[in-house]
Design a protein that fits this description.
By secondary structure, this protein is α+β, with helices and mostly antiparallel strands. It has 4 helices and 5 strands; from the N terminus they run H-H-H-E-E-H-E-E-E.
Length: 194
């Protein structure tokens, strides 16, 4: 069937979606050149992405080799860090248990050793709760053991630095005993913390 359209070209409805190269008036050589250029551009992009990918894989392998070389040191560092964490948790637990006051025990023990008179020695120093127990003995040949113990106690009571965190210092019972011709006095001093 043949259709004849008698409407002039200027009044005719143009069909949409039906494009052809003839309407653009682009020569075939240019279209082939553009298509070839687009294909070459895609190939260049693909090759450059492939080169970038190969370089990244090489860097990754190099990084893995470095990590393998550092692995023994890393394990040692992790071991030390784990030990440090354990020690820090232990220190925190001890710090939570200890009282808030910070008594300088080295200074207290120094004062104790400086205050001990001749013939007196300490057997045990023990902190039980808020009570410091000092046990010792005094020896003498001429019944001066008791005097030495009282002298030691009064010297401690006169030391302000020693009594800084303590409420009272009491001399407990003194047990006397005799070994051959020596008088020995066993004593216990009780000191209460504030």
């Amino acid at each position: 069937m043949i259709e004849i359209n008698l409407i002039p070209y200027s009044l005719r409805k143009k069909k949409k979606g039906n494009l052809s190269l003839k309407e653009f008036n682009i020569p075939l050589e240019i279209v082939i050149g553009l298509g070839g250029g687009l294909i070459v551009l895609l190939i260049l992009v693909h090759v450059s992405l492939l080169v970038i990918n190969i370089r990244n894989v090489a860097k990754h392998k190099e990084f893995q080799k470095k990590m393998e070389a550092v692995s023994p040191q890393k394990q040692q560092v992790e071991k030390v860090l784990n030990e440090l964490r354990v020690l820090q948790s232990t220190q925190k637990a001890v710090a939570d248990i200890l009282p808030v006051r910070k008594i300088c025990w080295a200074q207290k023990l120094n004062i104790l050793s400086d205050s001990i008179p001749r013939g007196v020695w300490l057997k045990r120093i023990n902190l039980e709760g808020d009570v410091l127990l000092i046990e010792g003995s005094a020896i003498s040949t001429d019944n001066e053991a008791m005097i030495n113990v009282h002298q030691f106690t009064s010297t401690l009571k006169s030391q302000r630095e020693f009594l800084e965190y303590f409420n009272d210092l009491e001399l407990g019972s003194i047990q006397r005993r005799k070994i051959k011709q020596m008088d020995i006095a066993d004593f216990m001093i009780t000191v209460r913390l504030k």
